[in-house]
Amino acid sequence: MRLTLLSLLFAVSAALASAPSRTVVERASCTLAPLGSGKDDSPQFLTAMQACSTVVIPTTSTLNISTRLNMTGLSNKHLNLQGTLRFNPNIPYWTANGFPFTFQTQITFWILGGTNIVVDGGGTLDGAGQAWYDAFASNSSLLRPITFTLFQATNVLVQNIKMINSPEWFNLVNEGKNVTFNNITLNAASTSSHGAANTDGWDIYRSDTVVISNSVINNGDDCVSFKPNSTNILVSNLNCTGSHGISVGSLGQFAGMFDIVENVTAINIRMSNAQNGARIKAWAGSGVGSGIVKNVTFMNFIESKVDNPVVIDQCYMTSASACAQFPSNTFIQDVFFTTISGTSTGSTVASLACSPGARCSNITVNNFTLSPPSGTAKYTCQNVNLTGNAASLFGTCTVT
Ligand SMILES: *[C@@H]1O[C@H](CO)[C@@H](O)[C@H](O)[C@H]1NC(C)=O
Ligand SMILES: *[C@@H]1O[C@H](CO)[C@@H](O)[C@H](O)[C@H]1NC(C)=O
Ligand SMILES: *[C@@H]1O[C@H](CO)[C@@H](O)[C@H](O)[C@H]1NC(C)=O
Ligand SMILES: *[C@@H]1O[C@H](CO)[C@@H](O)[C@H](O)[C@H]1NC(C)=O
Ligand SMILES: *[C@@H]1O[C@H](CO)[C@@H](O)[C@H](O)[C@H]1NC(C)=O
Ligand SMILES: *[C@@H]1O[C@H](CO)[C@@H](O)[C@H](O)[C@H]1NC(C)=O
Ligand SMILES: *[C@@H]1O[C@H](CO)[C@@H](O)[C@H](O)[C@H]1NC(C)=O
Ligand SMILES: *[C@@H]1O[C@H](CO)[C@@H](O)[C@H](O)[C@H]1NC(C)=O
Ligand SMILES: *[C@@H]1O[C@H](CO)[C@@H](O)[C@H](O)[C@H]1NC(C)=O
Ligand SMILES: *[C@@H]1O[C@H](CO)[C@@H](O)[C@H](O)[C@H]1NC(C)=O
Ligand SMILES: *[C@@H]1O[C@H](CO)[C@@H](O)[C@H](O)[C@H]1NC(C)=O
Ligand SMILES: *[C@@H]1O[C@H](CO)[C@@H](O)[C@H](O)[C@H]1NC(C)=O
């Protein structure tokens, strides 16, 4: 069975090498079994994704991914992942060979791109993160790979799969258009005292029309993060536990760059044991970048034991004095926080800290029912005029 498959794949490779590509008859479906004996399954997986319309990884297969996966420029592909892709934690190999991204100095195991791609099947992407969590604890500059990167991908559906123990962010959507993730279970759990650091669920960058829905996330950093140039995004029905929240930004970090986040809705979100709930963060200070956050709605958040349930921080990573001298050039407008309920861990349940100089406008707060573990809830705001039925909870905002 395995030999038959291999010889077929070799035949296809030979055909690809020797014939003009239009004469190659793409195979309808190929099924992959692990090579075993400590071998790397990346080459056979790459070959199959090139040669076959549908690639099936059956429930019984765990493929050993030991070399990087460049799967860009594909079209009309279905990866039916019923089994597991496990990324072999060879740290020296990946730090030297992971695909690099200049943005925030990241690397990734896998770039998947092109048009009309479906990934589904009920299987698992296993980032084998434990070795990475432990190594990062003694080397804080260790480059750790993002598990799954959609790179220049259009019309993509990823659904009904699990992702576990990513060494770094689970998913990056980079320069994508019309991408949907549905029914994804993400779980990052360290078995040592070293946490699963920086395991963002999704980061969206330079991408338009992205949906993330009906998913359950247990991780150690942002549940979903909208990085520079994220537009027309819907995030709905997510249960996030242990995360840093649904975050716009951080934006305006890099000098000379203009960052846009526009038309984002995050609705029906449960956020538990998290650092933040609904958050927007932008840099201020000298020598940073600029941008605009426009038309963002956070609606129907049910929060439980969240440190900062509602946050705008427009002086992110900037001292108050530097922020006063160099207000943020990332403007924030047309933002709605609607129907936010639940509990915080501290007394402050909402903090809307805008940079001086009227950088925030048209910020609306409605239907807040948030309570601290004890005492009176604190609502704080700076340099912003709030509207909506929860504005009175904040009182008059401080002007700095
Ligand atoms: C995966 O492949 C690498 C490289 O061949 C090998 O060193 C490693 O032992 C394999 N892992 C497993 C679980 O087979
Ligand atoms: C991926 O492969 C394509 C096609 O061979 C190539 O053009 C591209 O440069 C590769 N990408 C990376 C990041 O290596
Ligand atoms: C720490 O990680 C960085 C980046 O991956 C690497 O260049 C450096 O050699 C590592 N340091 C040690 C002591 O391993
Ligand atoms: C968006 O992608 C989906 C596949 O997920 C496809 O069915 C749909 O037609 C695409 N929409 C557009 C406008 O191309
Ligand atoms: C969600 O995905 C899981 C596999 O991870 C599958 O078992 C389940 O049936 C899917 N749920 C729906 C509603 O499709
Ligand atoms: C999130 O949790 C709630 C309450 O337990 C449950 O009703 C809902 O189905 C969960 N959502 C998902 C996407 O699993
Ligand atoms: C975002 O898009 C704008 C408008 O197209 C562009 O000027 C800017 O350079 C982009 N920023 C980034 C970070 O890609
Ligand atoms: C935001 O949505 C509005 C209304 O649909 C649309 O006119 C505008 O072009 C969108 N903005 C971006 C950046 O796509
Ligand atoms: C705001 O964004 C939402 C999508 O999140 C979009 O449906 C709506 O049309 C946008 N409104 C405006 C005024 O652009
Ligand atoms: C506030 O933002 C909403 C949504 O983008 C928009 O429809 C409305 O006109 C804005 N209001 C003001 C006063 O700018
Ligand atoms: C606030 O809650 C009330 C009562 O549930 C509801 O009628 C109203 O539409 C809500 N306001 C907004 C802006 O969602
Ligand atoms: C708030 O509104 C007052 C009165 O219209 C205005 O003078 C002030 O500049 C506004 N502040 C901000 C931060 O927009």
TrEMBL record:
GO biological process, one term: cell wall organization
Keyword tags: Carbohydrate metabolism, Cell wall biogenesis/degradation, Disulfide bond, Glycoprotein, Glycosidase, Hydrolase, Polysaccharide degradation, Repeat, Secreted, Signal
GO molecular function list: galacturan 1,4-alpha-galacturonidase activity; polygalacturonase activity
Keyword Hydrolase annotated: yes
PROSITE patterns hit by this protein: POLYGALACTURONASE
Pfam families: Glyco_hydro_28
Compartments (UniProt record): Secreted
Signal peptide segment: 1-17
Chief localization: secreted
GO cellular component, one term: extracellular region
Top-level class of the enzyme under EC nomenclature: hydrolase
Active-site positions on this chain: 244
E.C. number(s) listed in UniProt: 3.2.1.67
SMART domains per the UniProt record, alphabetical: PbH1
Catalytic reaction equation(s): [(1->4)-alpha-D-galacturonosyl](n) + H2O = alpha-D-galacturonate + [(1->4)-alpha-D-galacturonosyl](n-1)
Family, per entry: Belongs to the glycosyl hydrolase 28 family.
Function: Specific in hydrolyzing the terminal glycosidic bond of polygalacturonic acid and oligogalacturonates.
Name of this chain's protein: galacturonan 1,4-alpha-galacturonidase
Organism: Mycena venus
Origin organism lineage: Eukaryota, Fungi, Dikarya, Basidiomycota, Agaricomycotina
